[in-house]
Amino acid sequence: MTSGKAGTKGWRLTFERRSAPYVEPLMGWTGDDDPLATAELSFPTLRSAIRYAERQGLPYVVEETEEQNTNQRQSRKMKHAFSDETLERLGLGSLRESYDKAVAGAEGRQDRRGEEGWAWPMAVVCDPSLSLDAKRSILIDWAWTEYLIDQATNEGMPENGRPSRLHEVELALLALERGNAAAESAAPAPPRAAQAVAA
After folding, report:
1. Which of 49, 96, 104, 160 has the most CB atoms around it within 10 Å of its CB?
2. Using one digit for the tens of pLDDT, what is the confidence trace for 35-56?
3. Whether this model's pTM surpasses 0.70
4. Rounded to whole angstroms, how far apart are CA atoms 152 and 58?
């Protein structure tokens, strides 16, 4: 026997049974009146599966296998290491904790993915509706996506039929932090409390 993993990645949308199966009296086979009981749709990502269910007005429950949980944990570790290495390479290593905090809060803020919400990375930097943490989270996530596309292209598997935009995202990260540093240095210092000195 072999235990290959082809076709095991991605997400499946299955439907709950609306009626119980029954034993067909003539032949003894198992019968079923529910045509959706055997229907199964495949999606490359959880997000695409959820979007489909929401477009169709289907209530859904997300169930993950232990292997998916393990893969997600490994992916998070790799993404974290990539984030740290990228910040270090760009001279932004002192902001690691700020980026960790921004990424940790992304789900609570319901940050969109960069490549899905903006035409180019600098649009994220210029978007006045986003907080600094949201901009950091979106850009570092976008950088990770572009890094993966770059890796796939280098291995002869062009993703999305386009070159990586990692350099654009890195320039946007630098512009964001330069703008933030300039804004912080231009902000007026808080007033000092007066001290009474005895003569």
Report:
1. 49
2. 887 888 888 888 888 888 889 8
3. no
4. 34
Q: Which amino acid is at 36?
A: L
Provide the residue type at 32 as one letter: D
